[in-house]
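Minutes, project check-in

Agenda point 3 was the complex the collaborators sent over. CS summarized: two entities, 222 residues total, and the question is how they sit relative to each other. Sequences were read into the notes so everyone works from the same version.
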Amino acid sequence: GIQVEQSPPDLILQEGANSTLRCNFSDSVNNLQWFHQNPWGQLINLFYIPSGTKQNGRLSATTVATERYSLLYISSSQTTDSGVYFCAVLRGNNRLAFGKGNQVVVIP
Amino acid sequence: NAGVTQTPKFQVLKTGQSMTLQCAQDMNHEYMSWYRQDPGMGLRLIHYSVGAGITDQGEVPNGYNVSRSTTEDFPLRLLSAAPSQTSVYFCASSYRDPNTGELFFGEGSRLTVL
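CS then shared the predicted structure for the full assembly.
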């Protein structure tokens, strides 16, 4: 099956700092989504982004499908950005494959 | 519009007991799925359904059964619980084809098997 690798696995940020999370995938995909799992365990949709660039407030994402990677940018990080960020991809078989996540801790 | 609702949120079982995790969605989504989340493993797909009466296996289906008698409901059954099934379970749904849009998750069900 398709492999999804996220880096870095762990990240500690000072509040206000910027960061980039990366998702590499092993094959062409039809769908790529970024999720945020907050410290209470809830999974929140961030972006549906099989290609191109999208922005939502302080977050933005870029997927370069031809090079099989996606980036999630967090600008001016806040403590509420803490949690785990997951990249998930789908390759036409109705099965979203998740990476193992990026654990982000933002300290005040 | 409640979204995706899972019950129970917490459950403790003894080895060999059976139980059903309930999942309901009110968004008229055709696609529903169950994932389990274990430390360091991310989320792994257990079973999924593309519509009423249609189910298929995911990445880790052993020990679990599902059925889809209505569009709204997609229960996950553990017939004989094992300690290896201790995990957090998430139900998710989307429009007919996940290629066309977002996957929405329930709040999770934490299961402990003793």
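Noted in discussion: DSSP finds no helices and eleven strands in chain B.
Follow-up: revisit at the next meeting once the mutant set is ready.
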